[in-house]
Every structure is written in structure tokens, then in C-alpha cells.
Amino acid sequence: MLLAKIVGTVVATRKDPRLEGQKLMLARPVDPSGTIDGGYLVAVDTVDAGVGETVLVVSGSSARMASGMKDCPVDAAIVGIVDAVEVS
After folding, report:
1. CATH number at residue 42
2. What's the pLDDT at 47?
3. Is the pTM of this model over 0.70?
4. Do the domain assignments include residue 86?
5. pLDDT tens per residue across span 14-37
6. Contact at 8 Å (CB) between 67 and 46?
7. Is residue 88 part of a domain?
8. What contacts 51, CB < 8 A, 6 or more positions away?
9. How far apart are CA 42 and CA 23, in angstroms?
10. Class of residue 69 by CB neighbours under 10 A (exposed 0-12, middle 13-18, buried 19+)
11. Average pLDDT over residues 43-71
């Protein structure tokens, strides 16, 4: 599971039929302090996240286990919106 910041949206007018109606978001992994820590990734949004929010992203086979993603060709899914990160 990754922490990521939503930095934009992705519009794909032609895509696999199983992805029709799914919101695609552009995310960048961040460290616990919120500093960008990696490249961009496209993730299917299962929790109605918005640009600027910090989210939880799962990838690989875990992404296909997210709500509504069974048997969908996805490699990353947004599964949570982060309210706060606390490091002890």
C-alpha cells in the first residue's frame, strides 16, 4: 500500500469496456511528511477522491480486489482518503 497525492485526472475516451464509468486519477507517491517520493501513476478511484487529497493506493493483484474491480484490468486502485499521518 502506498501513500500518494492526487495531482490530476486522466480522460480516456477509448478503453477496455470493464473500465467504462470508472474515474481515473493521476497520483504521485509521497513519504509520510507529504514530500513527493516517486513518479506518476494512474489509478482507478474507488472512493471518490479529489485533486490535492492524500490517498491510499494498492497495486498489482491487490488492486483487483478493491471494491468493484473484480476481473478488471487494473494495476492500481485508490482505496482510501487519508485524514492524517502520524509518525512516532
Report:
1. 2.40.50.220
2. 95
3. yes
4. no
5. 999 988 999 999 999 999 999 999
6. yes
7. no
8. 6, 7, 8, 9, 25
9. 10
10. buried
11. 87
